[in-house]
Specification:
homodimer, alpha+beta, Alpha-Beta Plaits, 3 helices, Antibiotic biosynthesis monooxygenase (chains A, B), Jasmonate_Hydroxylase-like (chains A, B), monooxygenase (chains A, B), oxidoreductase (chains A, B), monooxygenase activity (chains A, B)
Chain lengths: 105, 105
């Protein structure tokens, strides 16, 4: 689903990744992290897709809400295991959404 | 491939979409638009993935380079046909990338 987000400005974290062939635990972790993100203060929504590249964009009210989520204990563990096992490479870009518009049939 | 982008700040356009079942011409258009984007002044890179949701993130030097690309004639035609045939819905978010970091094995 396309995330329903408020009128800008708000913030986006673009997480682009390439996975390893190691799958054990990956899907459970990914599901759990999305569940946890939904409970975080300032969380606005998330969008995700994967072909070869995976792209997950999460939306947040403020840079502070992004920082708190980044440092959350269970998320830190997921990040560490991610670097050890699940990801060959990734890039995280923290952005301020300045304007948005859309289209619906 | 994860896009190689310069030190922030730079700009990102997050294009999130849901497709219709109508495929005629879609793949050619998508390929052509990526080729054209690469030739635009200020274009830095692009990342794309699709599961149910499609996410394409293009990176740009400035808001002005994004505006010029948006108004380019062949791109305007693609946008119009997109709304008429290929997309059920989409959302475009124009962002300033404030910081980034990454990981590589």
């Amino acid at each position: 689903m396309i995330a329903t987000t408020p009128t800008p400005p708000y913030y986006a974290v673009i997480f682009t990744s390439i996975r390893t062939d190691y799958n054990d635990g990956y899907s459970d972790m990914a599901t759990r992290m999305v569940e946890m993100a939904h409970l975080q203060p300032g969380f606005l929504g998330v969008e995700s897709a994967r072909t070869e590249l995976g792209i997950t964009v999460s939306y947040w009210e403020s840079p502070e809400s992004i920082r708190v989520w980044k440092e959350k204990a269970e998320h830190l563990i997921a990040q560490q295991i991610g670097r050890e096992r699940w990801y060959e490479s990734y890039k995280i870009r923290v952005c301020k959404v300045e304007r948005d518009y859309g289209f619906e049939l």
